[in-house]
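Recap from last week: sequence in, structure out.
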Amino acid sequence: MVSTAAQLRSYAGSAFLSFGFRPFFLFGALLASILPILTVAALSGAIPYNPTYGLIAYHGHEMVYGYLAAIVAGFMLTAVPNWTGRLPVMGWRLAALFGLWIAGRIAFLIAGYVGISIVALVDASFLIVMDVILWREVITGKNWRNIPICIVIGVFATGNLFWHFDVLSGGGGSFSLRWGVGLIAILISLIGGRIVPSFTRNWLVKNGKAPFEASFGAIDKASIGALASSMIAWFVAPNHMVTSVLLLAAACIHLLRMSRWKGWLTLSEPLVAILHIGYLWLCIGLAFLGISAVNAAIIPLSTAIHALTAGAAGVMTLAVMTRATLGHTGRDLHADASTTLIYTLVNVGAALRFSATFAPGHYNDLLAASGLLWSGAFLIFALVYGRYLITPKISTVSQTAPKAA
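Predicted structure tokens:
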């Protein structure tokens, strides 16, 4: 029988379609570099843009179920082969799945011509098909440990279905956006809880520093349980005192969880430190949501949500995208000047989005600056890392199944 490694080496197709991270990271980054600028420009009246679904609804959907869905797909399609020992989705199969994601983005742009029912059919099918693929790989590879992640992706896909159903019924999709943001937070907790301590421990050992115990324990279980409970409460009763208490408790437990990973020891290597910063944004976002649930005058809901999206999701996705791209294309796992700039811009952009709330006299200026910096981080990723993503791996080492992204 031909081994998985031999089959990978025998692949003669386009490098761009050899692993899921390549097309989805590149085009997910391009979408993220355009959407905030487009939204800010339209809100300010600089451009006369008013999409079929309304500007805010369109922006919210495409940031959660467009850009973030692409990055999740790229990560999962690259990590699952390592979990299962099976071949990655590549070639025409990857092209078909990627084409389905692209079709969803185009469908939104021409919604006025094809109708929102067609948009719903095309867009919603992507996450459903991707989850079916993940289930097939996990079950065939008997990788039962990762079934919870398949379940989360399925629930994420359901949220997108709900969004379209709500819009078709005359609603605005706000509940479904909370659903999507909550599921992304849970994915950060699940996946981040694996890769952050693992990569940190490996780096500490490599650099002669004392490692730490990184096994999955009671605190990890408690943090995931607390987050899931608080998100369910937020879905059902976003402005209730119980929801606030659960969110604040989840923030504290996650802060305790990440303190065990000794992130302060990694500051000399931004490629590792950024993972801890991204996870810290998760803690901040949960705390902000908790405050907003009972007093939106202190922290408005939109500000709290952006701490989770622009902050936690934005920073963590770029942390994973840069590291996975470097590792899987045969380059050194080290943050150069351009990578450090990417990390700086995305964090400052997220911080300015939060700060704008407390400077009403400069709100529009800070909002514009936030969008420019945050989008700029993704644009630089596309420009710098794009050439890595479209060209073959440079390592001379025999290619094996990819390491966990």
